[in-house]
UniProtKB/TrEMBL annotation:
Stretches for region Disordered: 256-278
Protein name in the entry: Enoyl-CoA hydratase
Pfam (any one): ECH_1
Biased composition (Basic and acidic residues): 263-278
Superkingdom of the organism of origin: Bacteria
InterPro entries (UniProt xref): ClpP/crotonase-like_dom_sf, Enoyl-CoA_hydra/iso
GO BP field: fatty acid beta-oxidation
Species, as recorded: Streptomyces lacrimifluminis
SUPFAM superfamilies: ClpP/crotonase
One Gene Ontology MF term: catalytic activity
């Protein structure tokens, strides 16, 4: 019997097969990151790191994995915008670092939207599975901001500098199949198979040769943890500095105003997704 050991927008569920699940659990908001959610993510990630079982599974409840920073929480803060954005990014970055440095394998399952900061959170996994419904979009420059949550560190290592520049500068959308072709994810599966495939992958790893898996992962991470930490600090500085500027604040306000007027046929879930893109 699986045992939930926490509540709130980010939960931990410990499974009897040795899998420790870290679950984003605020589906009504697309698992968007405001300060409270980012801090919950950090705190739960620290708890998982202290007792990670045999493997960790990172997934999300609802139709979206994580739509990024909650622009409604960012907007209207005036001179305090940068301070708030820096606090959100710093909390999320602490979670990213803790997850990256887990000694056991980390499997990530991505359904629906992974946008903005949700991209870095998705890519931190050792093995990343995406549903065919997956939609990957950076979206930062559209609102005058720069990437956070490690996106500008992970992407060049996964898709090369040209691919990373394309994704970050143009904000193109990749489907789950596209993400597999580009090398963002390990493999793409049908939506109905994602949860079972991700848990099965994590359980097989948890049942594997623990010492060898930990040692192999350590070899893959040699020297990279400190580099990621420095890069995350620079990402937080950059996005906060831009968030204090008039261009970004005007773009965020215009973006939200446009999404407040959905076209005929638009769903509120789609509007909510687009309100959270960093």
């Amino acid at each position: 019997m699986s045992l939930p050991v926490s509540t709130g927008p980010v939960r931990i569920v410990r499974h009897p097969d040795g899998v420790v699940e870290l679950r984003l659990d605020d589906p009504g908001r697309g698992n968007a990151l405001d300060l409270g959610t980012a801090e919950a993510l950090r705190d739960r990630a620290f708890e998982v790191a202290a007792d990670p079982g045999g493997a960790v599974l990172l997934r999300a409840a609802g139709d979206s994995f994580c739509v990024g920073g909650d622009l409604r929480a960012f907007a209207g803060r005036g001179a305090e915008t940068g301070t708030y954005v820096h606090a959100v990014a710093s909390a999320a970055h602490a979670a990213i670092q803790a997850l990256y440095e887990l000694p056991v394998p980390l499997v990530t399952a991505v359904r629906g939207a992974a946008a903005g900061g949700g991209i870095g959170l998705a890519l931190v996994g050792d093995i990343v599975l995406a549903a065919r419904s997956g939609r990957f979009r950076l979206a930062y420059t559209a609102i005058g901001l720069t990437p956070d949550c490690g996106a500008s560190w992970f992407l060049p290592r996964l898709v090369g500098p040209r691919g990373a520049a394309d994704l970050i500068l143009t904000n193109r959308v990749l489907t789950g199949d596209d993400a597999e072709r580009w090398g963002l994810v390990s493999r793409c599966v049908d939506d109905g198979e994602l949860d079972d495939a991700a848990h099965r992958t994590a359980a097989e790893l948890a049942a594997g040769a623990t010492g060898a898996l930990r040692a192999a992962k350590a070899l893959l991470r040699v020297g990279a943890g400190d580099e990621l930490r420095r890069h995350l600090a620079e990402e937080a500085r950059s996005i906060a500095a831009l968030a204090d500027g008039r261009e970004a604040q005007d773009r965020m306000a215009s973006f939200l105003a446009a999404r407040g007027r959905p076209k005929a046929g638009d769903s509120r879930s789609g509007a909510r997704e687009s309100e959270s893109v960093s």
